[in-house]
Amino acid sequence: MVCVPYAGGGASAFWDWPDLLGDSVELWSAVLPGRERRFGEPAVTEAALIAAPLAEAIRAEIPKPLVLFGHSMGGLLAFDVARRLGDQVEHLFVSAAKAPHLAFGGEPHLLDDDGLLDWMTTLGGVPADLLAHREMLGLLLPTLRADLTVCAGFHGVRDVIDVPITAFSGTDDPLATVADVAAWQHHTVAGFDLVVRPGGHFYLKDDPAAVTSALRSATAREGVQ
Fold it and tell me: Which of 72, 95, 169, 213 is catalytic?
C-alpha cells in the first residue's frame, strides 16, 4: 500500500499504520517536495509534477499487488497516479477528497498567511503544539499554499479509471461532504464503495484503527492480500 498525504502533510501522517494494517500489508508513504527530508526542495503547484515521478518510482520499486490510499489532496494525487499506472493498481482508496470534477471550493490558496492558517486550523489540520511556533508555521505555509493550488487545478478533470475505488468520508466534513466524496463513483468502471465515518475532515486521526480495518476488509474482498 502506498499512502499519499494531505495538503501540508507528510509521510509521518502514516507512521502508526504498519502495526494497524498487520503483517500482510507492506506500507510505503510518499514524501513529497517541500516537506520532511525533501524540505529543501520547492513545493510544486502542478499535479503532474508530483504524480508523474511518483508513478515512475512506484513502477520501479513496488511490485503487484498494489493499492493506493490518499487523504484529501493525497486522494486526488493517488487518482492521478492510478491513472498513470493502469493495471498495476488493484484498488484506489480516497479519503476526505471531493471528486476531481468538482470545484475545490473557497480558493484557500489565494488567502494571505493569516487567513490560510485560520482556514487550516478550522479544518483541524494544524496540531495544537505547532500553533505556538509561528516561525515554523511561516516556513510551512508556502508548501501548504502550493498543495492547495494543486487541489484547485483538478477542477473539471473527468477521467475514468478501470480500478475499483473505495471512498471514505467524514460525516461532518465541511470541505468534502458525503455527497462530494460519493461523486467518485463517476470516475471508475470497476466498482465503487462509500464508507462514511463519524468526524470532520481529519476523521481518520480520531480512530485510525477503524480506517485501517476497513482498508484490510476491502483489500481482502478484492483478493489483493
Answer: 72
